[in-house]
Amino acid sequence: MFTKKNWLLISLLLIGIGAIGAINVLLHGEHVLGINNQVPWGILIAGYVFFAVSSTGVGLISSLGHVFGFTRFELLGRRALLVSIILLLCGFGVLGLELANPFNLIYILLSPNFRSPIWWMGAFYGLYLILLFAEFYYSLHNDHKKVKPIANVAFITKLAAVSNLGVVFGMLHSRPFWQGPYFSLYMILTAILSGSAILAIIFYLVGEKGGQVAYRGEHIVISLGKILVAALFITAIFTFWKLITSIYGGVPGKYEAAIALLKGPLSLKFWLFEIIAGLIIPIYILFKYQFQPAKVFLAAILAMIGVLFMRMDFVFAGQIIPLRVIEGALSVPYNTYVPGWSEWALILGAIGVTIFLYIIGEQKFKLDVQVEEEYHDQAGNLVSGKAPLNN
Amino acid sequence: MARFAMLIDASRCTGCNACRIACQMQWQLPPERYFNRLEHRERGIYPNAKWEIVPIQCMHCDNPPCRDVCPTGATYKRTDGIVLIDSKKCIGCKYCLAACPYGVRQINENGVPEKCRFCAEYIIEGIMPPCTSTCMNEVRVFGDLDDPNSKISKLMAKKEVYQLLPEKGTKPRIYYVKK
């Protein structure tokens, strides 16, 4: 089922769908998107957040090895860097197609507004991308003297980038559901969730193909599954308290947005995809099957589907409540937004590009990493050093 | 230095929408796009209930969130207080739409979020914005707060006024007459 040919076919199909969507957007502009003056940010912004935060999350998990010296996670090294680069490029691609006038981005440099969180988002993620390329390059050349300092700077940069992404929403006093520091912390947390899930998916498949996935005889996906379950639990707690604090006291704007998620127009997506498929079932699978790699793989796929809908819910919930300029003014109960088919196509296309580029990367680069560890040699003696591949 | 502002006496508004149409004609806007709008609400309890209409447009805030969030400085505030958009610099991220608590921005055919300009090009020639001049009940009074002899300055001195959403910290340049 998980043959390279099948993955290539799936990715090419998705890229084809995405290309049609991209052509439609490029030919007809923003009018083909479902966004409007009341809901100016749609699923392409959610998609950008999905890809950018996932990229950062993969980076954060791999930092456990590079920066914090947990030897087993050094195994993730090159693959994590590669997938982090691909995810960030896909995020930028989705965002670029969402922007009405992307060529004017030159003014980010010519007339920067340092008060704008989006300016800082561009700066941090731009720097992060450069550092990722540098780290990947030196990692492939086994130049560890250069990899280490770059990884340290990259760690600070990715924390800055992902927490700032939360601030892009948190700075908006006009949108009570988003406003505040909560989403900065939430972005870091859910980055760890999506990062561990994506790496679990990749390393399970790599293991199936006979790649280097074991540390001291234990599949790395087991460790990733444990991080994933912790992230899922904490995300559940975050989500619970966010909703409780929004409902408690009926704070205008926050209360209605929470109700929209719980029993309003967003409730199907929220309960079915974000909570049941994305949190409850993965936690159940991970505990029931004691982190068996194949089951972690399944839980991680479900968690990623949940994360995609989590991003959409988060972006919609902030905008779904009409602005209350005049107390008691007549208005619709909820702002409406129906994504255009091109928007869905672009999200699918970006997922396709991620899979496709990763397969190409696996072919082009030597991604297996030898990790210092103790292992039993052929004679059965415990030896310290670099274990042979496929140990 | 001028300090342009607007005083709105909503109690005089009949809801005829002439302000909206005059503005649309001035700026050649299609019917679905408008820089000012009327919001309606019911106040009081029967038999003392009444229908109230409040005109809303860009508040040309002194602390405009749309300017602060714009990554390229496309939205800027002139020294006379008018908030404008340089569409050549706009990347179309729509952050200003998300940031404005008054919901006055509208995406145009080029993906640039537009809004009321206080008719910046006309007022320097002494021409009143059409939303002001077209109104049969003189709901809006536009003028320079730094000129003590301007009509708006005199009215502001006499009347009790308020601003919309002061809790957002935007310091709007549009004032409303308290009833």
According to DSSP, the number of beta strands of chain A is 4
CATH architecture of the largest domain in chain A: Up-down Bundle
| Total count of strands of chain B | 10
Kindly report the greatest chain-chain contact and the residue count on each side.
A-B, 43 and 43 residues
Mean pLDDT of chain A: 93
Q: What's the order of the H and E elements of chain B?
A: EHEEHEEHEEHHEHEE
Discrete helix count of chain A: 12
Estimated helix fraction of chain B: 10-25%
The level-1 CATH class of the largest domain in chain A: Mainly Alpha
Kindly, what is the distance between the CA atoms of the first and last residues of chain A, rounded to a whole number of angstroms? 25 Å
Mean pLDDT of chain B: 95
Give the DSSP E fraction of chain A (strand runs of 2 or more residues).
Answer: under 5%
- What number of domains of chain A? 2
Terminal CA distance of chain B reads 31 Å
CATH topology type of chain B: Alpha-Beta Plaits
Top keywords for this entry?
heterodimer, A: 391 residues, mainly alpha, Formate dehydrogenase/DMSO reductase fold, 2 domains, two-stranded antiparallel sheet, 68% helix, globular, B: 179 residues, alpha+beta, Alpha-Beta Plaits, four-stranded mixed beta sheet, 10 strands
Mind explaining what this structure looks like?
The complex is a heterodimer of chains A (391) and B (179). In chain A, the strands form two sheets. Chain A has a two-stranded antiparallel ribbon with strand order 1-2. Chain A is mainly alpha-helical and 391 residues long. Chain A contains twelve helices and four strands; from the N terminus they run αααααααββαααααββ. In chain A, α1 packs across α12 and α8 (220-247) packs antiparallel against α10. The two termini of chain A are 25 Å apart. Chain B is of the alpha+beta class and 179 residues long. Chain B contains six helices and ten strands; from the N terminus they run βαββαββαββααβαββ. The interface between A and B is large, with 43 and 43 residues.
